[in-house]
Amino acid sequence: MKDPSPIDLVHDARHLRLDTLVRLRWLAVAGQSAAVAGAHLGLGLPLPFGWCFLVIATSSWLNLALRVRYPASHRLKDEAAAALLAFDIVQLAALLFLTGGLQNPFALLFLAPVLISATALPPAHTLALGLLAVGLATLLALVHRPLPWFPAERLDLPFLYVSGVWTAILLGTAFTGVYAWRVAEEARQLAQALAATELVLAREQHLSQLDGLAAAAAHELGTPLATITVIASELDRALGPQATPAVAEDLKLLRDQVERCRGILSKLTSLDEDQSGFLETISLGHLVEELVAPQRALGIILDVAVRGDGPEPHCRRNPGILYGLSNVVDNAVDFAESRVIIEARWSAERVTLEIRDDGPGFAPEVLLRVGEPYVTTRGARSGEESGSGLGLGLFIAKTLIERSGAQMTLANAADPSTGAVVRIAWPRHVFERDVATRRILGTTGAPTLTPARDVPI
User: Fold this and answer.
1) Burial class for 84, CB neighbours closer than 10 Å (0-12, 13-18, 19+)
2) pLDDT at residue 371 tops 50
3) Number of Cβ within a 10 Å radius of residue 98
4) Quick one: average pLDDT of 7-28?
5) What is the dihedral of CA 228, 230, 236, 239, to 10 degrees?
6) How far apart are CA 65 and CA 437, in angstroms?
7) CB count, 10 Å around CB of 234?
8) First vs last Cα of the chain: how many Å apart?
9) N or C: which end of the chain has fewer CB within 10 A?
10) Could you tell me which of 438, 111, 454 has the C-alpha nearest to residue 446?
């Protein structure tokens, strides 16, 4: 079965829930009813009361029809949501036509449907709704019923004021639409990138668990295999010389296959023993070698330096860290002209890993945003076409590495050198914390830490 795309995982969540629009429309119905009733009954302003409530009632009827037709959890397609928001704009325009057009201070409510669209719908739908709102506002500036006012007074707003309201609606629609779309789009991109990170981490953890599952299967199969071995021996002893050549050959084949199965199960069981000990713990030098080994055949010179003060630090084999560091090394090899330098150092307080290449380095305009989701440097650093990468690789690597307690910084090499520099630093007690815990529990045979640092956190 095809693995779900992180974009697909978030795409359905992006669709507006019908219940959200219905609740907002009920709120609008309540507000419009209160405003019309208060103006007519409370202030005594002359307005077409019946027509106004007929326009308001259309929203109520639509809400009731949607409640009957669809469940509250129904999510609308983009086109359906845009159509419902367009209805809200037209309904508001009809109500404003009856109550003074753009002279009515509630004309600014044209911004509300456009703002909702900007946060949840594609830009094309938001643009269409914005044009609809501005077009109806233009019509209301020219054609509308008089603004309801007290009979003993006359209120005649100049056309210049009406033009200012129209301009405010135009600019407000454009500004709030773009601003809301940008904020919502960043949130969606972050959600998609985090979903991709979780998928990658889940795959890596699944691979790391296969050895344990195989070992568990070996333990479960050990008992029936031992029973088969006993029965084969009893048959061989009972039949003995009286067995026909065919039966004797079958018994011999059975014993051989039993021994073969026992050897296979023995190997699978040893995986579990190794995983709980040596294979689960890795030194910093072995970690670096595991990162660079797949890259040595690619024609790029790899200079590796591993040195430090005191005993070499060890860490638990972490699929997330291995994936993140491998991604960084892959990028360095991809962009390097001829050489990649990897330096691993440690002291009593810190463990650092620095990866440098001699490529073009990070472009200045993206350096400050490298590591954010959907920010790619493929075109800027390697001369590829823009859009050749999604910009998720480095984000996922940075997320997984920093989740382990490290600090990851990105920079360009100082003159006269060129290339990108990635520095990753752990506090030593954080780098070794899982190993220290397992040593105290006595579950690994790796060398012990010095007494000053043999304490878990």
Assistant:
1) buried
2) yes
3) 19
4) 72
5) -100
6) 62
7) 10
8) 41
9) N
10) 438
36, pLDDT greater than 80: yes
Query: 394 and 335 in contact (C-beta within 8 Å)?
Result: no
Model pLDDT for residues 127-164, shown as the tens digit of each residue = 999 999 999 999 988 888 888 888 777 777 888 888 88
Cβ-contact 359, 286 below 8 angstroms: no
Read off the DSSP letter of residue 41: I
Q: State both tokens at 435.
A: 């190993």
Count Cβ neighbours within 10 Å for each residue of 425-453 and write b for 16 or more, e otherwise: bbebbebbbbbbebbeeeebeeeebeeee
What does the alpha-carbon distance between residue 251 and residue 79 come to, in Å, rounded to a whole number?
72
Q: Which amino acid is at 158?
A: P
Cα–Cα distance measured from residue 196 to residue 157, given in angstroms and rounded to the nearest whole number: 56
Residues 6+ apart with CB under 8 A from 12: 75
Inform me whether the pLDDT recorded for 380 exceeds 50.
no
CB atoms within 10 A of CB 226: 12
Whether residue 17 contacts residue 75, with contact meaning beta carbons closer than 8 Å, is answered with yes
Bridge-based pairing of strands 339-346 and 301-308 is parallel
Residue 329, classified by CB atoms within 10 Å of its CB into exposed (0-12), middle (13-18) or buried (19+), is buried
Structure tokens belonging to residue 203: 């795959």
Query: For 339-355, what is the mean pLDDT?
Result: 91
Identify the pLDDT of residue 239.
Answer: 77
- How far apart, in Å, are the Cα atoms of 10 and each of 54, 73, 281? 40, 16, 36
**Bridge partner residues of 427 (DSSP):** 350
393-403 vs 319-335: helix axis angle to the nearest 10? 140
pLDDT of residue 67 exceeding 50: yes
Do 434 and 276 contact (CB within 8 A), yes or no?
no
> What is the residue type of 134?
V
Q: How far apart are CA 194 and CA 396, in angstroms?
A: 8
Helices (H), 78-158: 78-98, 111-120, 123-142
Q: Is 402 exposed, middle or buried (0-12, 13-18, 19+ CB in 10 A)?
A: middle
* DSSP 8-state symbol, 157: -
DSSP 420: E
Stated pTM of the model? 0.49
Task: For 259, list phi and psi in degrees, rounded to 5.
Answer: -65, -40
Does residue 122 carry a pLDDT above 80?
Answer: yes
In 157-313, where do the E strands start and end?
281-283, 301-308
Return d(Cα 340, Cα 329) in angstroms, integer: 9
